[in-house]
Predict the 3D structure of the following.
Amino acid sequence: MFNKKDIIVNAVPVKLFASNLGLYDNFYRNVNEFKSGFKIKQVGNNFFVLLPDWFIKLLEIGYDCYVIKPYDDFKYEFKVELSKKTEIGFYKNDNL
């Protein structure tokens, strides 16, 4: 998923976040900041995703995540609603 060097003060560029999770590049226009805990911050012409503490902790203990698509058979342990129509599922990454 993300390398430690990709995360800068609990934030990653929107394009990196989107490509790693399988989201569309413009997903950040629909993020429900209050429900998911993710926030979008614009710095100049660049957009960043501010990662909530719980998300960072899950990465640290070896969880990975990917967007849940209705036509995939993606297996996950639990899911989080990122926006009204987008959910991400978390699974334990045994390759760490």
The two ends are 11 Å apart (CA to CA).
